Amino acid sequence: MSISYSTDSSFIHPSILNADFMSIGAELDKISSADSVHVDVMDNHFVPNLTFGPSMVEQIVERSPIPIDAHLMIEDADNQAPVFAEAGASSVTFHLEAARAPVKLARDLRRKNAQVGVALRPATPVEPLIDIIGEFDMLLIMTVEPGFGGQSFLETMLPKIRRARRAISEANLEVSIQVDGGVSRETIERCAEAGANVFVAGSAIYKARDAAEEISALRELAGAHAAH
Question: Which residues are catalytic?
């Protein structure tokens, strides 16, 4: 399965960080109406927590009814990120802070048939990326500090999203902007208005009474408030 990002559409990517891992198959089926499964890979070094390795991602790929969007919160992205493309992730996002040669890494990932994303922590400015933004399919702007689920949305990231969308539009590029952290019915409209079009939601979806209904509601809200 592949992901084809388009800035004309809104994409909902539920994070399985909030799923019940003892019933992962059923938890994946629960979100089958979404556009992709967001898999948070943490190494206990770049961020304090430890989650999935490549073998677990490979198993999720095999079981999932929709494509896998792997968000790598790991050190040594230059060497480790391609392993997740080889494991079958349709989209691989690495952190700019963890890559020594981000352009080379992006091209390496694309050669392995993965869409490529680059992520920024809240305190990392977007400006150093502007000249190379065309090397990526997606820019992930973290709207919480990476490494923990269930955090509150950082309103201060909205101007950063706007600056990124403006720079992408002025360069006439097709680069999606993903937001991750505290995304819910209460915050998704503001993110969409600022210029984001790919939305990671964990708690909002997995704690909802009906995950499919929540996915539909989030997609509708994002689409209705998309930046033009």
Answer: 40, 180
